[in-house]
Design a protein that fits this description.
The chain is mostly helical. The protein is about 50% helix and about 5% strand. It has 3 domains: about 1-40, no CATH class; about 45-85 and about 165-195, no CATH class; about 100-150, no CATH class.
Length: about 200
């Protein structure tokens, strides 16, 4: 996309901003991509920010220590003034996996196969397994069905965000040491925005 980091930053500056049809887009911040904006605080203070907490994103298994650490992060966010609301998303890991691999089966899997023809023996076993699983999903599910499933899942996610005026915070985003870090502007800059 660009020859230098500075050029990539300029390009990113043209592409940033909230899009009303995309709940994953971030609000535009002037100067975000300039050199002088060393560590921008994208979302300001956490006070009043509404964050939806989803431990399992449906029925995903979450280790007890991960859940405990995630709840610890939620408590630290509350201490910093955020309004943390626990929500349930009624998805299944099977449904997400089927949808994800249908997508990969028509797009990423075939691209990976094309790029690795003749050098399959150099691929890691998990890479070969990924391509095989993607191919199997494409053979079992129509592309249109995958797109419909993705659209439904994204619409359900967007509805949970808009209804709660919040952003989902799944346990899988949680990392060790995040509790301490959430008080810094660098971590606040990673937190999703509240809805307009």
């Amino acid at each position: 996309m660009a020859r230098t980091v500075a050029d990539a930053a300029l390009l990113a500056g043209v592409m940033v901003g909230r899009h009303p049809g995309d709940h994953t887009s971030l609000a535009d911040r002037p100067g975000l991509w300039r050199e002088e904006a060393a560590a921008p605080d994208l979302f300001g203070p956490l006070a009043g920010k509404r964050i939806a907490l989803s431990i399992r994103l449906g029925n995903y298994l979450v280790a007890p220590d991960v859940e405990a650490n995630t709840r610890s992060v939620a408590a630290a966010l509350r201490e910093a003034g955020a309004l943390v609301e626990e929500i349930e998303l009624h998805w299944t890991s099977e449904e997400i996996s089927r949808t994800m691999f249908t997508h990969f089966g028509y797009l990423l899997g075939p691209a990976m196969e094309d790029e690795t023809v003749g050098s399959e023996e150099l691929l890691a076993p998990y890479t070969r397994r990924f391509m095989a699983d993607a191919r199997k999903a494409a053979e079992s599910h129509r592309f249109l069905d995958g797109v419909r499933a993705e659209t439904r899942i994204q619409a359900e996610l967007a509805a949970s965000i808009i209804d709660a005026r919040s952003w989902p915070f799944p346990a899988v985003w949680q990392t060790a040491g995040f509790r301490q870090a959430c008080r810094s502007s660098a971590t606040r800059s990673m937190m999703p925005p509240s809805s307009p």
